[in-house]
Design a protein that fits this description.
The complex is a heterodimer of chains A (424) and B (121). The N and C termini of chain A lie far apart (58 Å). In chain A, the strands form 7 sheets. In chain A, strands 1, 2, 5, 6, 7, 8 and 19 form a 7-stranded mixed β-sheet that branches. Chain A is globular, with a radius of gyration of 22 Å. Chain A contains 9 helices and 27 strands. In chain A, helix 1 runs parallel beside helix 2 and helix 4 crosses helix 5. In chain A, 50% of the residues are buried. In chain B, the strands form 3 sheets. Chain B has a 5-stranded mixed β-sheet with strand order 8-5-6-10-9, with no helix packed on it. Chain B has a 3-stranded antiparallel β-sheet with strand order 1-2-3, with helices on one face. A two-stranded antiparallel ribbon of chain B has the order 4-7. The longest helix of chain B is centred in the middle third of the chain and has 12 residues. Chain B is α+β, with helices and mostly antiparallel strands and 121 residues long. Chain B folds into 2 domains: 46 residues, no CATH class; 62 residues, Roll (CPE0013-like fold). The chains are: A alpha/beta (424), B alpha+beta (121). At the A-B interface, strand 4, helix 2, helix 4, helix 6 and strand 25 of A face strand 5, strand 6 and helix 2 of B.
């Protein structure tokens, strides 16, 4: 069994940034395991621009953003294996992790790692998970699958398209299919608001006069061999179709952009606790899971809207994995829970150790509804610590607050930190 | 006098803007809650531009496609002319980020450049 200090599962933006950070914090022995044939992850199929505005102060395409981090990893001679699927992560009696993986060259093999960073990303919610009635013909794709076919393989999945779900990938693909000569007839969204970024609605739908129907869903798919038509209907406040509102669209393709799910089968097998809200690991301020020495970052931890935040988060995971490898487990430290309330769905991290954090810790979260003229309030037990006014917040956009060691340190008997949306 | 309804894209607020024009020049912008909305509305009505991204085929590369983009933003009404002119372009691997794929696309004076490194097979 080969030994490494750090094994990183996934060579996308999270895995790459984590590896660079761990190396810069003194870890020599690092291996990235990537299941695709190249590094870069999902960025390689995201050919639209707008990546890296925060990190590089310019608008890059996905592959350009990925290339910056691939170059950084290459400059540091960080090792990686491509076409390699990790099958299992187990904790050994010594506390070290046994990583079982396989590829064509090595067959099945085992590695021993002092620490593991989970950076597997997420996958799209499938038709099966959505329970859409109707036939099961060819021509139904997740938006990301269509994106890969068009942008990387050079195939057009269809000519007349209906899209269910207004997540960013669906919006981006509405434009992309249109530019490649397809007709996108409608985008239907179950919720009364879009899950995508405003700029994508304007530049991907409005620019091309593609209608967005909020509070609508697909209630039937026709076609034995290939999709021939889909029927959409308006939904009421209970999200059930309203009789009499049905509209039938002839089409050959249905794209689904209905949410992303962190891919945590490996994490669960390793004994890592998963949050029912994020579907990602529960982590502390080090982005360490409840299994010592296993860290998580990127979309496997919680689904992000901007890759810039993934890179920042991954750098934190890489640094803390390095500290764990150098100093061992952080041991018992005072742990305070962050409790999300009043519209805040979750926070990452979930637990803070006031004595162990750096000067500041970034807490990221999402809200459960659209809020206008509200404020994000942070309470240390009953005492209001900060109130940040926000003109608008939406579920599609990640929010963050920053806690300081100084402020937390002033409360030695702190029981819990509460984050809540209140009226401004 | 004519009016146009726009959605501002500068921030998540997404203000509903109403732009009034007379003889092609903007006479008023309403609905915006900050100066960025005003500037956005004026540009959108008088000279809307976009960065266009697409793909072209690669011969002899490790991947069949390379993604490309306009080096700077181009007029919005040239988007389809731009993608149409990329339809039959085939580039020879290797390709490096920044390589010029096509010059002066759709008479915009803007080049199409590669946005990905593709090694030769």
């Amino acid at each position: 069994m080969k030994n490494y200090d750090l094994v990183i599962v996934g060579g996308g933006p999270a895995g790459l940034a984590a590896a660079v950070s761990a190396r810069d914090n003194g870890i020599e022995s690092i291996l990235i395991l990537e299941r695709d044939k190249e590094l870069g992850g999902i960025l390689n199929q995201c050919i639209h621009n707008g990546f890296g505005l925060h990190t590089f102060k310019e608008e890059l395409t996905g592959p350009e953003y990925a290339a910056r981090f691939i170059d950084q990893a290459a400059e540091r001679n960080i090792s990686y294996k491509l076409n390699t699927m990790v099958m299992d992560i187990a904790v050994m009696d010594s506390g070290e992790k046994k990583v079982t993986a396989m590829n064509r060259e090595d067959g099945m093999f085992e590695l021993c790692a002092k620490a593991v960073i989970l950076a597997m990303g997420c996958r799209e919610r499938s038709r099966g998970a959505l329970n859409i009635p109707g036939y099961r013909p060819a021509g139904i794709y997740s938006a990301g699958t269509a994106q890969r076919l068009v942008n990387m393989e050079g195939y057009m999945p269809g000519r007349e398209v209906v899209i269910l779900g207004s997540g960013d990938i669906g919006l981006i693909m509405a434009r992309r299919m249109t530019l490649e000569g397809a007709t996108v007839k409608v985008v239907a969204e179950l919720m009364p608001y879009s899950g995508g970024l405003k700029r994508n609605i304007v530049q991907c739908l409005d620019d091309f006069n593609i209608p967005l129907k909020l509070s609508h869903t697909v209630i039937d798919i026709e076609g034995k061999d290939r999709v021939e038509a889909v029927t959409i209907a308006e939904v009421g406040a209970d999200r059930k179709p309203v009789p009499g509102t049905e509209e039938r669209y002839t089409c050959d393709t249905l794209l689904l952009s209905c949410g992303l799910i962190p891919e945590n089968e490996l994490s669960k097998n390793a004994g890592v606790s998963i949050s029912p809200v994020t579907s990602g690991p529960v982590v502390n301020d080090s982005l360490e899971t409840d299994v010592p020495g296993i860290f998580a970052c990127g979309n496997v931890l919680h689904v992000h809207d901007l890759v810039d935040y993934v890179s920042q988060e991954a750098a934190v995971a890489g640094k803390n994995a390095a500290l764990y490898i150098q100093n061992g487990s952080s041991g018992d430290a005072r742990t305070v829970e962050i409790v999300p309330e009043g519209g805040v769905r979750y926070t990452v991290p979930k637990f803070i150790r006031p004595e162990r954090i750096d000067d500041t810790v970034t807490v990221r979260f999402r809200v459960g509804d659209v809020y206008k003229n509200c404020a994000v309030c942070v309470y240390l037990d009953d005492e209001l610590l900060q109130k940040k006014k926000r003109p608008v917040m939406a579920p599609g956009e990640m929010e963050q607050i920053i806690l300081t060691k100084e402020k937390l340190g002033a409360h030695p008997d702190l029981g819990r930190i509460i984050i809540r949306i209140e009226e401004a | 006098m004519s009016t146009r309804e726009l959605t501002c894209i500068n921030c998540p607020l997404g203000c509903a803007l109403t732009v009034t024009t007379e003889n092609g020049s903007v006479t008023s912008v309403t609905g915006n809650t900050c100066p960025r909305g005003d500037a956005y509305a004026r540009k959108e009505v008088t000279n809307p531009t976009r960065i266009v991204t697409s793909t072209v085929r690669v011969a002899g590369g490790v991947c069949p496609m390379v993604n490309v983009k306009t080096a700077t933003d181009i007029p919005k009404d040239k988007i389809f002319a731009c993608t149409a002119s990329l339809k039959n372009v085939i580039v020879q691997a290797p390709v490096a980020i920044g390589d010029v794929i096509l010059t002066n696309v759709a008479d915009t004076g803007v080049d199409i450049i590669a946005a990905r490194n593709i090694a030769a097979k």
